[in-house]
UniProtKB/TrEMBL annotation:
GO molecular function, one term: oxidoreductase activity
Signal peptide bounds: none
Domain annotation NADP-dependent oxidoreductase: ranges: 33-338
Name under which the protein is recorded: NADP-dependent oxidoreductase domain-containing protein
Family: Belongs to the shaker potassium channel beta subunit family.
Annotated keywords: NADP, Oxidoreductase
Provenance organism: Suillus placidus
Domain of life where this protein originates: Eukaryota
Pfam family for this entry, one: Aldo_ket_red
Amino acid sequence: MASGSDVMVEFDPKNMPFRRLGPSGLRVPVFSLGGWLTLGGTVIGDPVKDIIKTAFDNGINMFDTAEAYAKGRSEVEMGRVIKELGLRRTDLIVTTKLFWGLRAGPNDGGLSRKHIIEGTKECLERLGLDYVDVIFAHRPDVSVPMEEVVRAFNWVIEKGWAFYWATSEWSAHEIEEAQHIATKLGLHEPIAEQCQHNMFHRERPEKEYRPLYKKYQLGTTVFSALASGLLTGKYNAGIPEGTRFSTHSNFFKSTVDSLQKEEGLTKIRKVNELSVLAEQELGCTITHLALAWVAKNPNTSTVILGASKPEQVLDNLKALDVIPKLTPEIMDKIEAILENKPAAPPTFGRPPLDLNGRL
């Protein structure tokens, strides 16, 4: 972490668009960089620095990690690189997540007040930072009263260890409960949800959360926008060596097995059709199309990219040029291929409202 004369790299947003993170005033880049499975895991040392510097030099100033990523090494590597590059702390948005912890003790995980407070302190120690911008509840904890969870995150914010808190992979019901408690007690409410959202995973982010977007202006920080690489086309003819499905074969075993079944074969057929559409009508790859498609959603605050080398960051950022090309006509063609658009809430015969008025 650098300040004043210690700063070696000035931040230049380039052509990166920024959006508000949910209802907050915090501005985040449309594309951010995450450490899951890569930074501190399959990628360590100088290559981590190369990836983060490439992202920063191209307008990405938001970096996401978690206590559980590579058993804490992701936070260590990210913090080390931030310091070695001489990045100004106020230029950065650093987020981390709590739930699984690093030890097996009965209070070393979950969302008890004890683990939220002690876990936050340990995250900051590994990162070498005084605070993170957003701290996420990495999963819901049904064994802890929701009021305890909300009060604990509020306390972390009041201590100055984080500016905001958010959720990850929570149900709409659980987010709603946290919102109600925060409002009732005058505490800080969760501002975002880190969820999986891609062309093959749509029900939760597009249907289940729909009322939350309207009621609380909730924003999403999307992971797995490429369906763990399936939407790059790399798995159309098998599992290449060095890919995520290969290097993390145990973790993705059920996904890999599913590719040999009817559902998986159908997805591969759709990937091929989407690839043709991307190349012939948009002049891009399916990777760029898939990333742009998620980013185009107005409820997406940021799309978290994963990269094992700098070139992947640069290639993924080409999706920025595709977003404005996603016209209603192109979106309709995509829907015709996907055939999985979540159904709208039933109206029970009521006539539609005027689209030019407030819906």
